[in-house]
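QA checklist item 7 of 12: single-chain prediction sanity check.
[x] sequence parsed
[x] length recorded as 156
[x] structure emitted
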Amino acid sequence: DAGHDTAPMSDSRAKCHFALVGGVYIDEIHEVAAYPSEDSAIRAASVQRRRGGNVGNSAAVLSQLDAGSVEWVGVVPANGGDGAVAFALDSLHAYNVRTERHERVQGEAIGMPTSMILSSRATGSRTIVSSRRGLRELCAEYFSREVLPAFVREHP
């Protein structure tokens, strides 16, 4: 190894603060023996409910790397989404992901974003049908006013 620095890396890594912005979904996974033919009815072999969404899943994974604090920032319906908001946020809290800076959006016709996932045992493939259920994306004004100043203040 002539000419190469082979000194071991230090275990004292600087801790980072991550803010992940985006959607969190409620995933309902329906496992079936095989995909149904069009315009037919079948029963699911099992149904699972999980927190989903790329950013929500990424936040949970990142929190397990012990690289620092992880915070999810996004929008949820103010009406609670029939318990779906608590389910989603509690699942993030289980991974020590902070969620206190989320924006609550008012509106009667607004629900928690959901995905219905049809998973085939026969092929291992899946089909995902998702909906934001009327919930808009996080707006830049809220992020600039509520999130950014607090994040900069807490993590200079």
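[x] summary fact logged: The CA atoms of residues 89 and 99 lie 7 Å apart.
[ ] second reviewer sign-off
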